[in-house]
Amino acid sequence: MRKYIDQTRFLIAVDCIVFGFDGEHLKILLIKRGFEPEKDKWSLMGGFVRPEESLDGAANRVLTQLTGLEGVYLEQIQAYGDPLRDPIERTLSVTYFALIDIHKYETQISDQYHAEWFLLKDAPELIFDHGEMVEAAKKKIRYKAALHPILFELLPKKFTIPQLQNLYEDVYNTQIDNRNFIRKLTATKLLIKLAEKDKSGSKKGAFYFKLDKKKYKANFQAFLNFIPNPDKLLTV
Amino acid sequence: MRKYIDQTRFLIAVDCIVFGFDGEHLKILLIKRGFEPEKDKWSLMGGFVRPEESLDGAANRVLTQLTGLEGVYLEQIQAYGDPLRDPIERTLSVTYFALIDIHKYETQISDQYHAEWFLLKDAPELIFDHGEMVEAAKKKIRYKAALHPILFELLPKKFTIPQLQNLYEDVYNTQIDNRNFIRKLTATKLLIKLAEKDKSGSKKGAFYFKLDKKKYKANFQAFLNFIPNPDKLLTV
DNA sequence: AATATTAATAGTTGTTTTGACATTTAATAT
DNA sequence: ATATTAAATGTCAAAACAACTATTAATATT
Which of A14, A78, B219, B236 has CB 3.0 to 4.6 Å from A58, enough for a Cys bridge? Predict the structure, then answer.
């Protein structure tokens, strides 16, 4: 199957930036690298692409290995191709970010990889260019979440408004007025209020909500600015 | 330099989606493929990544080969990794879009590649998954241009407001009210009015403008929506 | 029974942004 | 002098927005 002659072939890897949310803060899942070089240093979860799998396939495989989860929200970020980025051998890495419900993860076991959740703020130094990759991933979810409702992917099926607001506040490192927040939220019509309350966080308790999946999928597009009515246009 | 054992290596290519603007419509630069398979079919300009160059380096090299231009606006879009996307041999392709001033190009010669500008609307069918790549590139520039002033990269140093408006109208396939357009444009403070006029398009002539480069670079970030004052936040 | 705590709601206000809309002006050709 | 053509300009009302005050709800603590 080698038919293009005189060309060099390279290793191709995928690396996953896995985000979770504990109700208070954004977290990232890291593993202790199990082999040399940089053995026992913290690293993203990754793996080499195999001959018969696509990039998305490889990313999903790696993620399932690490978390036991399937059907996770996963999105390609970009390819890193500096010739020297891996000191052992030139390897192209395609990064993905994953948004998972951290509670689903906790029931899984992955001691095998020495995986650990870190607060995004005080994550340890990472091998190779993984630190740079994480920075790019943070930028990307900020960018995307400002226009699309992806952050719901980090929450459990049932969640409360204060949780959701904490999430937005943590992602954007800001304080949000909760009346204005609720007003905008209501306008999206994406939430369905449940009868049940979460009483763990307060005496009064906060009502649980769930996503209206249909509207979530239908309204995943959003509006933009320079252009009048850009939301109409972007879906074209 | 092969040290990761038992792993498969792959060809890596870059493919460039080159956009230009003729004053009326968005155009795309395509080439006639010079070798089998699919010889003489229309294709994106691409090339294999060499051992010592980065992805960006490869994309720039390919682009310079095709256009003679250097320092062009070039941005990575995404990696395509379907195992069967190239029938000859599995090849990963990393796509880039380029925005060039079509007039700078026209002085160049690239008969060697049988390159040709096509109106985006009636571009021919392309080989492999290149058609899909072009669609993704169109989406990406629409998305990005709604938030960032990248479309200026398509214009010559001196340009007129009607040209600029044509460009936006063509990219978004819409009509824009020209008073509102100018108002928003003025608000960006990105333009500097010149004394000279372009009289080719009308009797009255339209004033030329140029970009305020400093402000262009400084204000490349933009605003978003769900979050109050998101422009402040995104630059953090 | 009073108090403290967090969630939830109502709604006001002033500002900014938006979309819709029609006329005048400048340069040239006739 | 007049006609022609595209460029340039201003106003208004509605909507969206951020900032803010006040109150009610439900419970646990004392």
Answer: A14
